[in-house]
Amino acid sequence: MTKNLCKSNLWVLLIVAGLVGLAGCAQGLNQIPPSGAVQPVAMTVTVCDSSEQGCSAATSFGLGSFRDLGVVVDWKNVPSGTHTQQIALVQPNGVVYQTVSHSFGVADGTLGAPAINDVIPVAGTFITQRSQTGEWTLEVSLDGQSVGMQKFQFTE
Amino acid sequence: MQRSSPYLRRFATIFPRVLAAGSLVAFSYSPACAREKKTLTLTTSQTRGADAQLDASAQTTNFGTATSLNVAARSGTGQAARGVVQFDFSSYPNIAVKQADMSLTVTQGGNKNGSYEAHRVTNLWTESAVTWTNRVTGTAWTAVGGDYSATITSAVTINSGTTGTFTWGLTTDVQTWYSGTQNFGHLLLENPSNGNDPSGILFNSREAASNQPQLALTFLQQVSSLVATAGNGSVTLTWTNPTTLAGSTSLEGYAGVLILRQLDKPVSATSIPVDGTTYSACNTIGSNNDVVVFVSSSSATTFTDNGICSSLTNGHVYSYKVFAVDTAHFYSTECSTVVSGTGACAANASAIVPEVTAVPSATATSEAVWVFNTLAGSLSAPGVDPGASIVSGSNTLLFDVNPSTGTPVAPPVSLGGAVSSRPTLIDSADDSIAQNVAYVPAQDNFVYAVNTDTGALAWLVNPTGAPFVASAGIQAKAFSTSLYTLSQDLVVLGTHNGSTTSGNKFLALNGNTGATVWTFTGSLATPLDIVNSAPAIDYTHNAIWFTSRSNGGTSQPSLWKLDPNTGTVLFSAKLGASDYSPSLTTGSDVLFVSVSGGSLTAIDPVTGVTFGSVNPGDGGLHSSAAIASQNSPYTVVFNSNSKVWAYQFSCATNPCLAGGGTFTLLWGGIAINNPSAPFTFVGLSKVYVGGGDGKIHELDLTTGVDGKQRLLNTSATVGDVGIDVTLSYVMASASDGRIYAFAFPF
Q: Which fold has domain B22-33+222-368?
């Protein structure tokens, strides 16, 4: 009985963890399996109005006064070596709009926890000129391996 | 004689020559071979090839011209020597890569056995400037010693003291370079078996007299000249089968083609016929359920779809993708060669397979002349050199397309950042750099000059450390008056540094070298916000006009006039923010300025005096004004939130200048869902507008009647159009990641 209960709880945890990983959130924590490291690589992604100080997390941005999209990816437990983070901005129709790659290094013998900041211009691009409103997705990968995503809205 | 710009001059002087839409050409078939194998040798004559050494013990030394390159682990990773190698694929723009193996000739073995790893480089570098610390002049690698993927693409063990030729498998990386990933070559580093390896290996570079780096490439060519012709409930396709390239070794003979069809959306880039598998008509492939409508085991070059598998419904858009296939059933996809089973495929393994669309109808058929997949839906408008080149930036790649056929002229050019605007093209007869060139500002803070014949970078510079969103303008020396005192063309553009509303810059670069000629930084009295549109060149009065945002109101200038010789401000005005380029009449007697969400204002380009303005409502101005008349009254066409309008501006005197003039409505309120900037020019009787309804609309310039449309994709937004007046093609990017070209008038 106890054994079965534990098993059930484990399934619930796995499902919840999977849903978090799939759906993302304003500040979603996502993990990828360790590649030899004791601790799994994890990251939190935050999207914000880049003109605001500190990149306050938000999930909806009105295009009228919006300038640029700030993206902060906080990594944890990244093994030593050179790494490349890629964020892909995906349109509501599922087609990639733009990607931004960012290389960073982690010193030998350490687990890195860098915060990678990127700014994606929005004002004056076709996002504002053609009012590309709807649910956009920010997909994050590390060294070619998908890590997680963050959904947000552009509104009028 | 007044010239507004070399590009517009060509538009105005070349009268459109209309070609019969969908005219068919009879193709003759030549015996051909399918999978081909060709060895590319990296030589110094290849403008898109490069190699160099990155050396931690000579961190600022460039080894771009060295004849041999060192790869060593002298005292751990901190004192390494690494090699970077980039092959030139420019002769192979229209292929599907099945295998790619790099061979290097080692002339000196290491002190210890070592694993020599090839990693994909992840940042742009240039052979003449790359060092251990810098990737291009003045710009450091993010991590010293090169930015590269942590994933080992391929590793080869070379024992101590061993020389000879060694081979690294690079297939997956090379495939992705054709299907959406930037190509910055590979980095070689040593991972010694134990301890350090002070000497490492030496391998011959492309500057060596012999045994230079080589890449053995196995591939299938794509079909070419794919044309669709719509009928009543039918679509006929024709194409040209490839013939073996000179110097290639044939592995199998061609067996024909496989054609996939999809209704009301494109065939998916992830719909991939599996190598080694035979298909029958009406099979479906991929999660998109793309339908196999034709499998040819002959030399056929035509197929008529009369509704095989399911009847064709008139009025709907049908997309077709044509795969070449060989006798071993290898398809022209970016999937690896395997002896049996499914080889690894790139993420968008059929993205570069030729495709086309057609709309069958009982009364009004239509078809795209060609369709080109740019792999991202940034809606960046194509730049056009009529009859010569179509260059489109999409995400971080630049595509050079043959405007007649829609086939790539060269493999994608990899840039360091995304391109948000239309590339500015000028041909060698008109420019001072003496090349056919595209000037491309990007979001990585760089401006690129790209040779449109080869895809090679003529130069690249990072002039301000701030990103660019808008297109550049060119002040061509050849078209300037004696008032212009500089000795070469100017490339002029403004920055988009969104973190400041007052610290942006507008600058002029030497068109030949990219060197900064002058920089305008604004001032306390005239602070400069972000610049989101291309400038206009006033050749008559020797001035550069551009617009900017203005800190959310009218407290800062948003219209600027600069002296091209010095960058001095000649005039500025606080009209309110503008994301749209100013438009100048052919005679430079009126400047039209669109204020975002506001009015269209007519201005005296000499004094800056406002002649008048008009606001049609519906959310105000949402585009630049397209000028369709040579002389007063000037017909100007623009859009508001959801409508297209045409006004006439009548001058009181000729030229206008001090005499001023007035606006009168010609036609207006033509409803188009989420319209793009209207496109027309002097001599054209039509106006072309991309819509949020997936169509390009053709409006009559005199009446505004939205008489005919061309359907691209019912679920796509269509971007700003471009026109090739030599071929009479109108083309536009769409949010489905493709450029569509149509013959005009519709």
A: Immunoglobulin-like (2.60.40)
